[in-house]
Amino acid sequence: MIKHVCVVTVAMAAAMALPQAGAQAPRDSRTAAVVDELVNANRILFAQGVVDGFGHISARSPVDPSHFFMARSIAPADVKPVDIMEFDRDGKVVGTDARQPYAERFIHSEIYKARPLVMSVVHAHSASVIPFSITSVPLKPVYHMSGFLGKGAPVFDIRDGNATHADSDLLVKNERLGAQLADKLGPAAVVLMRGHGFTAVGASVPVAVFRSVYTEQNARIEIEALKLGTPTFLTEGEAKMTEETMERLSVRSWDMWKKQADQAR
Ligand code: MN
Predict the structure, then answer these.
(1) How many CA atoms lie within 13 A of 130 on its CB side?
(2) In angstroms, what is the span from residue 171 Cα to ligand 1's centroid?
(3) Is residue 97 over pLDDT 80?
(4) How do residues 174-201 score in pLDDT, each as one tens digit?
(5) CA atoms within 13 A on the CB side of 54
(6) Which of 21, 80, 105, 251 is 20 to 30 Å from the Cα of 86, by its Cα?
(7) 93 backbone dihedrals φ, ψ, rounded to 5°
(8) Ligand 1 geometric centre to CA of 107 (Å)
(9) Residue 54: exposure state from Cβ atoms within 10 A (0-12, 13-18, ≥19)
(10) Helical (H) or strand (E) element with 257
(11) Residue of 104, 110, 216, 222 marked active site
């Protein structure tokens, strides 16, 4: 009996010591903090209805700014620290990590390349945003929470970069498409993707999350307003000033959303 228990224990220990597909070196404290923030961001974005089974969020590495961190290809609500992978500037997996990455990681790699001050990128398909990607109605800031939308979110059409306008699965799954998306984003905070979703950026993970949540809410409010009449949008000056004021306070939403996501577990 004792021998049997020993065998099981040794087998378990051996399994734990095996270099698994997701084996990672211990993380330094700055990286561990960003990884923790990313895990929370995944859960918050799910709890807030921005992502569902799909969508992803990344953070630029605090140690090597040409690298970024993002979960392996799983549903955002399930992401744990061990699921976070490291990618280089071209969206290639760093090291020997053999796990499946998101096909659309080039959205992230190309934006980090084009926008040195961007520290976090969110990509989602939330429903209220889609109408603005498939009509000529612009997504513009309708209230003080979404001043970051500025003059209105540009719309990326995946067919535009293709001379023959060939059909595709609409996914940004190579560097060329990622670079075209980053180009369409330009200096903006959010870019819509025709028939697909949106990508938001920020100077921190909480700000990228804040912008994603309020992109979806702005879209909902704008659609409601359009049913009633012609909306009055924020002026460019109001957009700039509300962006500065509200994003300074974005940590308040972050803390509340984190609590909500924790309670929902
Ligand atoms: Mn997508």
Answers:
(1) 8
(2) 6
(3) yes
(4) 999 999 999 999 999 999 999 999 999 9
(5) 13
(6) 251
(7) -65, 135
(8) 9
(9) middle
(10) helix 250-263
(11) 104
Q: pLDDT for 44-70, tens place per residue?
A: 999 999 999 999 999 999 999 999 999
> What is the distance in A from the centroid of ligand 1 to the CA of 195?
10
State if pTM tops 0.70. Answer: yes
Contact 190, 153 (CB under 8 A): yes
Q: How far is the CA of 133 from the centre of ligand 1 (A)?
A: 13
Residue 12 falls inside a structural domain: no
Task: Tell me, in angstroms, the distance from the centre of ligand 1 to residue 105's CA.
Answer: 10
Average pLDDT for 26-42 = 95
104 is an active site residue: yes
- Ligand 1: centre distance to CA 55 (Å): 6
Number of structural domains in the chain: 1
Question: Is residue 203 in some structural domain?
Answer: yes
CA of 99 to the centre of ligand 1 (A): 19
Distance between CA atoms of residues 47 and 261, nearest Å? 6
HSE-up of residue 230 (Cα within 13 Å, Cβ side): 0
**Domain harbouring 247, CATH code:** 3.40.225.10
Residue 84: inside a domain, yes or no? yes
Question: What is the rounded distance in angstroms from the CA atom of residue 23 to the CA atom of residue 199?
Answer: 30
In a domain, 192, yes or no: yes
